[in-house]
Amino acid sequence: MAKNKIDINMSRLKAAFEVSSKIGATEKNGLTRLTLTEEDRKIRDIFVQWLKEEGLSVRIDDVGNIYGKREGRNKNAKSIMIGSHLDTQPRGGRFDGVLGVLSSLEVIRTLNENNIVTERPIEIVNFTNEEGERFTPPMIGSGVATGNYTKEFAYGLRDKNGVSFEEALNEIGYNGQEENRLSNVEYFVELHIEQGPLLEKNRKEIGIVKGVKGMTRFEVTVTGHASHGAHPAYGRKDALVAASKMVLAIDEVTKSYEDLSTTVGVFEVFPSVVNIFAGEVRFTFDVRHLDDQIRNRVISNIKENLKRISEESEVVCSIKQTWNIDGTHFSTELTGLILEETNKLNYSHQYIVSGAGHDAKFMNDICKTAMIFTPSANGFSHCEEEYTSYEDIQKATTLLLNVVMELANKV
Amino acid sequence: MAKNKIDINMSRLKAAFEVSSKIGATEKNGLTRLTLTEEDRKIRDIFVQWLKEEGLSVRIDDVGNIYGKREGRNKNAKSIMIGSHLDTQPRGGRFDGVLGVLSSLEVIRTLNENNIVTERPIEIVNFTNEEGERFTPPMIGSGVATGNYTKEFAYGLRDKNGVSFEEALNEIGYNGQEENRLSNVEYFVELHIEQGPLLEKNRKEIGIVKGVKGMTRFEVTVTGHASHGAHPAYGRKDALVAASKMVLAIDEVTKSYEDLSTTVGVFEVFPSVVNIFAGEVRFTFDVRHLDDQIRNRVISNIKENLKRISEESEVVCSIKQTWNIDGTHFSTELTGLILEETNKLNYSHQYIVSGAGHDAKFMNDICKTAMIFTPSANGFSHCEEEYTSYEDIQKATTLLLNVVMELANKV
Q: Which numeric CATH code is attached to B214-325?
């Protein structure tokens, strides 16, 4: 088969990473490249230049998504789309979404230098604001492109300085046309770092992602009564002691179900001064699981626990749901094909359920979608220590190339 | 006995409270009257005026302590000192130290209007900066007057705006002479609100304070590793989960010893954002008990627990001791006398060990000292809800009067 005869060029891919890793670089090897900032503009300009050098036709849509299309032999065939996002968290990592974009570029470059003609067109994409840090919620580019969000919703989002998404888009010169949005896509494959420790722990080279956990997020306020530390142990309504029990109850529940995770994120104590025990604690928690039924059962269980703890601790607890997104099941046709190609390449692998949202989550609504994960050292992500070895990147990119070639000729 | 024939004037005492409660009043019936501020100056000026109206000789010492002396018949006899402090916490209560000063004033007024001549002189005192909120540490006025702190140490303290204690003292015109410091004092009796729930819970009218708990304070840093909430439950080093276990271990230990209290005060979580679990938690805790041996045993126990939790949670924990003050045992001669007078008045009572520091703590170093506590509604203090009924205040002030009259004739 043709695809076994060609190889990606790892030094070329490294060189692309070296360029990307300098734009928004932090002191400790991370990246701060928030969406629609000057840093984002710089990497976009370079990316567009690279696409043009490969002879792709480049389009920018009305939320700044960048597409580069490599035509296929069959003019009626739907595209295979590959890619991810080039924006990062503040002091985030160099790999995260960048890997998905640069590996896709390497796939295109490899096909080009080997003069491979495919049946289907292949499109590469860089989605706007996957991270959602500057403009919340995340995955705005893919959300609008797939009809999950309206353009008006996206344009009206404001960052903490009051700048709107639309203003920021115009400011960096990436406000394109609505008619440039993606269409006629049959498959979407996104390569991404795992953002978890499982592949490393299990010594697997490839993660085949079955889906994305659904997530429900809550805000909790625990109200006790602050008083002087001179107050005897008896009769205190210490909001921190109660909230600590809640944190442990929320953590403990993860032991009951496989692939369940919970996270207490924001955690604020009032008044938080040395001599006074806490009168109020506000915290957020989320519950993530692929299976919506299991997730809802766990949420009921947590709510009951929080209620019981409040009563026992004589504090008042309010729980407000702030976000819900159901579990996403990726295309079994695609995960099956990825498994086949992984086996042909003799890479060790395992199935994974992603805990994080990804552009693939929205793409799954409009086309057959799956993801490939590479190992993340220590499971770290969204931090400067985020790391994936070039050895692992080489394997994953080779797999992506082979998957793309298989799909590109399957009409 | 003469002392049974005279009564305090409750409407006069109420009127004094009404004056005090307006100076630094907060919207919700509390007081913000930080030491050496303009509000403090106002109440001091009024207090000095009241002392002068009672014919007392007024002195101001070099840390702003105000003394008013009522001479006794016996010129060689040492004084009985009574009083407390007029400063408050930010959004603190109307009673706290104010009760000790105004009840003492009422004792003097009652003696005067009944033309009672005592053997010993009686001195009333208002100590500077008992609260220690604007200038840390607390109890600076009594600390310098009793030789626990030097004047230089006090003068060099600075508030958060960089203003020194000495500048603030000069600014409000209360920088007096070193030779005016207290001397020749035999007894010190301080009336104060309980700042705890025991008297109310046990339906007792009077608390006879046996001593002040010793206190040791620590700063703890728990270092795990922050990462994205997408990280599976497995392999997390969540600093908040570990710290929550520590909070509960520190709280749990109070069940093993009577009159033991522990407080986690400051509690800060990093980064405290919705999508990331905690990489670091910093918190303070203190351990309070009258018996130094018990306190030290409890501290060892807590340290072992924190170490065990760190190991089990795979986080790093550093513990730094920042403050230690041993337990204070008040004069049994004085607590015995207070008990006798309480019984004569048929007031219900119980012994109490104070969890908070008080000026009496330092006074105990230089003279026979004890304290009388009144009930605090719900045990609240250092907050606007702090409340003690006038009924309870009347009983405690009557007791104080009788104790003073007993001591004043006992030479």
A: 3.30.70.360
